[in-house]
Structures are given as structure tokens and as C-alpha cells.
Fold:
Amino acid sequence: MLAPLAALLCGLAFGAVLAAITSSIEGDEWLATIFRFGLVPLFLFSGTFFPLEQLPGWLQPLAWATPLWHGVDLCRSLATGEVDPLLGPVHVTYLVSVTALGAALTVRAQREKLLR
Structure:
């Protein structure tokens, strides 16, 4: 029952970060670059389709640092009922922190644009 809330939190984290990025750029020519070199590799290497243990050792810590891995792992654990009591709160805290940081950067970028 809580998996949709975890998915919503993951979406908020991504939305806040992307809003901050798009608020700080001038034109829309960077959007394709952001998707091609940011979101697509993030989607492929976050454990969504295959376990992270199949990735090279140097790529695993990079995948653990992404918000999508936290969201996917949290949703998976909630859906299967195997929530780790230590890792579950870490996932939620990480996603809330990313959301707050992205929102703060978005407000700052928008404020700077309005004051120009």
C-alpha cells in the first residue's frame, strides 16, 4: 500500500532536480542533452531492469548515489514486504533531501531570473 507513495516521492525528487536544471539554463537546446546523457544512463544503471551486482564494481557506488536507485529499491521492498528497517528510512531521507535541495535551487534560479 505504501509503494505508490514511495514512487511519488521518487518522482518529486526527480521533478525538483529537473526543475532546478531547467530553471538555470537559458534555452531549450540543453534539454535533449540532459535526457540523453543524464536521465537515460541513470535509468539504465539504477537497478530498474537488472540487479546492481551485475554492474562493474566501479559503477555500483555511482548507482547507489542516484535518487532512482533509492526510489526503485524502496518501491521494490515495499511491494514485496521485505523492508529493511535500517535501509528504508535511509531511502526516504535521501529522497526527501534531494527534493528539498532541488526545490531550493529552483527557487534561487527563478528568483535570479526575475531580478534580472
Q: What stands out?
A: The chain has one domain: 3-115. Residues 3-115 form one domain. Residues 70 and 105 are 21 Å apart (CA to CA).
